Amino acid sequence: MEAAAALESWQEASRRRRRSAATRPRRREAAAAAARAPGAQPEVDGGVVLRRIQEAREDLLISDFWSSALGESDVAPGSVPEETPVTGSCRLKCVCYGVGNFATCVIARNQLAFLLLFLEKCQIPRSHCWVYDPLFSQLEIAVLSTLGVAVLRENEEGKRSVHGEPTVFYMLHCGTALYNNLLWRNWSIDALSKMVIMGNSFRGLEERLLTRILHKHYPYVAKILKGREELAFPQTSRYTDVFNDTSIHWFPVQKLTQLSTDTWAFREEPDYQDCEGLEIIRNKTEDPSAADLNPL
Hints:
Shape: globular
CATH topology: Rossmann fold
Mean pLDDT: 81
Helix content: 25-40%
Strand order of the largest sheet: 3-2-1-4-5-7-6
Number of strands: 7
Structural class: alpha/beta
């Protein structure tokens, strides 16, 4: 449960629990449209982008949102094991999907700045963080490489195994299919208990989607609802569009073992053949040689 312990360390300054009402997430398509709107910032050189990321990081660090995330949010007593806080020497990893075009979109840039701060707070080396978005430009890939994170070059559609190691998945405002794919790839008590997901509130997904749609098209999200713990991000006016409807999810062994045997017997890979409004960019390549620029 090292991933959960890392988050406990991140939130340990206070014991007050804060819950915010979920709002419909700002989808990445809307963010991309905003970036293309009149008056949007044109893509610039890498040095300017790096400076803007640093400015976003500094603004976030002194914001009410960051102090609230550190000091006012906490999990319910006993929901996260009391373990030694994770240090930089641990094997904790981070995978980021769908952060968006941060060179031109302020929302995406703030989400990237938060990711960098989170890595520092949990003492996760940037080399242990893998990032992917099918919309990345070559400039953005170069900037991410300069920042020291590993850039994935294959669209995994979220189907990445934790390989038995504690892993934080940072995937804000992503399509439901991406979460469903991630759960499918790691559909076992051992793998799920090593995973933390920072992304769209599963509680919000359950409330917004019709039950039959959730179970038909996103069965792994539906099946895991009783096996997860969820903590909502704090909400502040400045970062409403950046972190709305965002929660931290983790999957305690004691909850997972209470799920029925039938829950684990179903292992069919999702295909979404007749799913309308699928919010995911599919992998169109069939190149078996495709691999990470920085392999695990």
